[in-house]
């Protein structure tokens, strides 16, 4: 299945999660800073991840999602994740990304998920890479 993992990352933590997911899915992880709308041509599974910044996905992820014309993702499976700190109200960027992907026509094949960092700059908490690999492995099963 032709898969693309798109991520944004300020301090490298979301990148690490994106790469772990991509490896499990035998896919490419590409920074949103390098993506063009043509990058999603021909893909069958799209995973999008962002750090939570003020309860939302980053502006670059939002711009990427906004640039996708409605219906463009029909026939494409998709899922979303975010990275966040453990605070009382983290917000949920992944859920917002999932919703936007669905609105563009994608079939959401997994619940969105959050991965935890210790502080704003990281590091990822222990076990989060394994959690990412398991989330991706579950997605892989659902595509079969
Ligand atoms: C400006 C800013 C706003 C943030 N807002 C939130 C937030 O609302 N909720 C949350 O859980 N984490 C928040 N964080 C923590 C980020 O989620 C954390 O920096 C991120 O997961 C690290 O991933 P990265 O290394 O890929 O950027 C914020 C961080 C920054 C720098």
Order of helices and strands: EHEEHEHEEH
What bound compounds does this protein have?
flavin mononucleotide
Q: Whole-number radius of gyration?
A: 14 Å
Q: What shape does the CA trace take?
A: globular
Report the sheet-strand fraction: 15-25%
What structural category characterises the helix and strand content?
alpha/beta
> Helix fraction?
25-40%
Q: What gap, in angstroms, lies between the N and C termini?
A: 9 Å
* Overall pLDDT: 96
For the sheet with most strands, the description reads:
6 strands, parallel
Total number of beta strands:
6
Number of helices: 4
Low-confidence stretches: none
Structure characterization notes:
The chain has 144 residues and is of the alpha/beta class. Helix content is 32%, strand content 22%. Strands 1, 2, 3, 4, 5 and 6 form a six-stranded parallel sheet that branches. The protein binds flavin mononucleotide (FMN). The site of flavin mononucleotide (FMN) has 20 residues, from helix 1 and strand 4. Flavin mononucleotide binds next to helix 1 and strand 4.
Key descriptive features of the protein:
144 residues, 6-stranded parallel beta sheet, alpha/beta, single chain, binds flavin mononucleotide, globular
How is this fold's topology laid out?
Elements: E1 3-7, H1 13-24, E2 28-31, E3 45-51, H2 59-66, E4 77-85, H3 93-103, E5 107-108, E6 113-117, H4 128-142
Parallel strand pairs: 1-2, 1-3, 3-4, 4-5, 4-6
The protein binds flavin mononucleotide.
Flavin mononucleotide is lined by residues 9-14, 51-55, 83-85, 87, 90-91, 117, 120, 122.
């Amino acid at each position: 299945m032709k898969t693309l993992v798109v991520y944004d990352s300020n301090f490298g933590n979301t990148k690490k999660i994106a790469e772990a997911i991509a490896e499990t899915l035998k896919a490419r992880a590409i920074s949103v800073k390098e993506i063009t709308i043509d990058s999603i041509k021909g893909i069958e599974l799209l995973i999008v991840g962002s750090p939570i910044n003020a309860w939302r996905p980053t502006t670059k992820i939002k711009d990427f999602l906004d640039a996708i014309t409605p219906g463009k993702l029909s026939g494409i499976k998709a899922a979303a994740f975010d990275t966040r700190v453990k605070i009382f109200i983290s917000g949920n960027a992944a859920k917002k990304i999932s919703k936007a992907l669905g609105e563009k026509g994608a079939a959401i094949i997994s619940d969105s998920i959050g991965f935890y960092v210790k502080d704003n700059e990281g590091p990822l908490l222990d076990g989060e890479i394994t959690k990412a690999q398991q989330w991706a492995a579950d997605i892989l099963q659902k595509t079969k």
